């Protein structure tokens, strides 16, 4: 009996059935955190303070987030499959849009770095933080 006729199709079928499980966890194996909830120490154009993310949705490729930055409310999203985070800080007299990437590391400190734009004082400014 030729075992190749049985063995190869069986192995291929097994691999095909496992692929959704293996690849659905690929982003987490890369080191991006699944959640950004918590308090972050931040520096935005040399102003230091706290970014506090209090809520994060549990489903989707990019997940809605909310919280505060420098005591002002924020809304945005975090993409755990790419490590990308974006949020908007609005006040009566200005609007700022933050965009950053999170580190891919197994270290205990997670870092983010990127830019924010201020539409009332046009320009791009550096932004980074750690948790």
Characterise this structure.
The chain is α+β, with helices and mostly antiparallel strands and 131 residues long. The protein has one domain: Beta Barrel (Lipocalin), CATH 2.40.128. 19% of the residues lie in helices and 47% in strands. It has helices spanning 4-24, 26-29, and strands at 38-44, 47-56, 63-69, 72-79, 84-90, 95-102, 111-118, 124-130. The protein has an eight-stranded antiparallel β-barrel. A hairpin with a 6-residue loop joins strand 2 (47-56) and strand 3. The radius of gyration is 21 Å and the shape is globular. It starts with a helix and ends with a strand.
State the secondary-structure class. Answer: alpha+beta
Query: How much beta, percentage-wise?
Result: over 45%
Radius of gyration: 21 Å
What CATH architecture would you give?
Beta Barrel
Q: Which quaternary structure do these chains form?
A: single chain
The biggest beta sheet, please?
8 strands, antiparallel, barrel
Distance N to C terminus: 61 Å
Question: How are strands sequenced across the largest beta sheet?
Answer: 1-2-3-4-5-6-7-8
Give the rounded overall mean pLDDT. Answer: 83
The amount of helix comes to 10-25%
Name the CATH homologous superfamily: Avidin-like
CATH-defined topology: Lipocalin
The H-and-E topology, N to C, reads as HHEEEEEEEE
Shape: globular
Q: How many individual helices?
A: 2
Class, according to the CATH hierarchy?
Answer: Mainly Beta
| Strand element count | 8
Low-confidence stretches: 15-29
Number of domains: 1
Keywords:
single chain; 131 residues; alpha+beta; Lipocalin; 8-stranded antiparallel barrel; 2 helices; 8 strands; 47% strand
């Amino acid at each position: 009996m030729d075992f190749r006729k049985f063995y190869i199709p069986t192995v291929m079928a097994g691999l095909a059935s496992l692929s959704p499980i293996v690849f659905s966890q690929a982003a987490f194996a890369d080191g991006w955190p699944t959640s950004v909830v918590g308090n972050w120490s931040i520096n935005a154009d040399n102003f230091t303070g706290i970014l506090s993310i209090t809520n994060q949705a549990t489903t989707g490729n990019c997940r809605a987030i909310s919280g505060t930055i420098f005591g002002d409310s924020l809304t945005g999203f975090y993409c755990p499959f790419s490590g990308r985070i974006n949020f908007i800080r609005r006040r009566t007299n200005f609007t700022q849009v933050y965009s950053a990437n999170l580190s891919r590391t197994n270290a205990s400190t997670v870092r983010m770095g990127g830019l924010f734009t201020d539409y009332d004082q046009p320009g791009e400014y550096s932004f980074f933080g750690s948790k």
